[in-house]
């Protein structure tokens, strides 16, 4: 049958709800329990070649860039290999140094984004090794790379990427597992991650079941002219992606910031008309993150706190503070669960404002001219 929105009012909504099934597809057959590692045949790299990697550079545009930041964080954390992400649209214009022992990772849903494709070509021209995290089979980027991981998210129609992005994250998690297990990641940690990955689709479902609460919060956020999304370390790319989605479809000004940097500038802008969506997982930074919430509340700033059950918000005012609880996973995998409610916040804000959710103004699903 043709892919249509069916009983859903938009493709974006349908695609958000498809995430548990899509996540299962990307994981299927790619986790190796016996050796507690990833089983990614398409990388075309044997253990010796994987071990020789000294650095990882991730490239993508838009949401693919932000999930690339989440992925780089995961890779550095689990495989202990220096990793970072860069906007593919900027990369080749600064005459980048291409190193033979760097693994380049191009991330793209469509596989047709020209900025990402040109970055891949620049790397290969200089002799670098590039793998793709691509959804569309046989697309330009998929054909150009040395190896890769297909995302199996199925067709994605809405301009704002949801299920493809989730599968990109899972692709990174499996890559980090496989890279980690030829280096210093223990078998116990490998098993812990595999169990965490296998449990993710059900946890995404739990978040989707809270849609009514998210809708109510989104309708209030839609009234604001301007918002902040804040997070730290693993939570910062989550905030960036949350702000991106929100501005793409609601046309509200949404700015992502490191929570730690608020006091170095934008705290001056916090007031009762400027809400902040704060990413506050129960991790090693929780106390500092909660302290920042107090700073925001003290200036009358409304708060939406995306957090875990265990995190106490005691002492914050009842009024103007919304708590959105997501199930926890392994700390390395938490970012993707923290991202899912932000999709529904953006979606319901845009819906409230009466916008064309699947085709926001001035944007294209894939940008094929530079
Ligand atoms: C466009 C879309 C974004 C998307 C980006 C990358 O700008 O509007 O939503 O994240 O392209 O697309 P890709 O297909 O390369 O993942």
Automatic annotation (TrEMBL):
Residues 46-185, 217-360 form the SIS domain. It catalyses: D-fructose 6-phosphate + L-glutamine = D-glucosamine 6-phosphate + L-glutamate. It comes from Nocardioides bizhenqiangii. This is Glutamine--fructose-6-phosphate aminotransferase [isomerizing]. It is an enzyme of class 2 (transferase). GO terms for molecular function: glutamine-fructose-6-phosphate transaminase (isomerizing) activity. It comes from the Bacteria. Its EC number is 2.6.1.16. The lineage of its organism: Bacteria, Bacillati, Actinomycetota, Actinomycetes, Propionibacteriales. Keywords: Aminotransferase, Glutamine amidotransferase, Repeat, Transferase.
């Amino acid at each position: 049958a043709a892919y249509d929105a069916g009983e859903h009012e938009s493709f974006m909504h349908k695609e958000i709800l498809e995430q548990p099934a899509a996540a299962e597809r990307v994981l299927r057959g790619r986790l190796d329990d016996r050796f507690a590692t990833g089983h990614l045949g398409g990388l075309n790299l044997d253990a010796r070649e994987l071990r020789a990697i000294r650095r990882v550079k991730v490239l993508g545009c838009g949401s693919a860039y932000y999930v690339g930041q989440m992925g780089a964080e995961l890779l550095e954390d689990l495989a202990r290999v220096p990793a970072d992400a860069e906007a593919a649209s900027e990369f080749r214009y600064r005459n980048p140094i291409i190193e033979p022992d760097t693994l380049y990772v191009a991330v793209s849903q469509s596989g047709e984004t020209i900025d990402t494709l040109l970055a891949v070509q620049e790397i290969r021209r200089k002799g670098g090794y590039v793998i793709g995290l691509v959804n569309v089979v046989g697309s330009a980027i998929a054909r150009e790379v040395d190896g890769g991981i297909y995302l199996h998210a199925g067709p994605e129609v809405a301009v704002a990427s949801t299920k493809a992005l989730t599968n990109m994250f899972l692709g990174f998690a499996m890559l980090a597992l496989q890279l980690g297990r030829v280096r210093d990641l223990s078998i116990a940690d490998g098993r812990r991650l595999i169990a965490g990955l296998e449990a993710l689709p059900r946890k995404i479902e739990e978040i989707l079941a809270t849609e009514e609460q998210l809708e109510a919060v989104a309708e209030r956020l839609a009234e604001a002219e301007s918002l902040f999304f804040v997070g730290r370390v693993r939570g910062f790319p989550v905030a960036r992606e949350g702000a991106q989605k929100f501005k793409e479809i609601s046309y509200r000004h949404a700015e992502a910031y490191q929570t730690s940097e608020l006091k170095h500038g934008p705290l001056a802008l916090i007031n009762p008309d400027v809400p902040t969506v704060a990413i506050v997982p129960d991790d090693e930074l929780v106390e500092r993150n909660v302290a920042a919430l107090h700073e925001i509340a003290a200036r009358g700033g409304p708060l939406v706190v995306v957090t875990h059950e265990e995190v106490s918000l005691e002492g914050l005012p009842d009024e103007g503070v919304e708590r959105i609880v997501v199930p926890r996973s392994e700390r390395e995998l938490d970012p993707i669960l923290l991202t899912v409610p932000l999709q529904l916040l953006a979606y319901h804000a845009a819906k409230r404002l009466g916008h064309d959710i699947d085709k926001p103004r001035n944007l294209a699903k894939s940008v094929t001219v530079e």
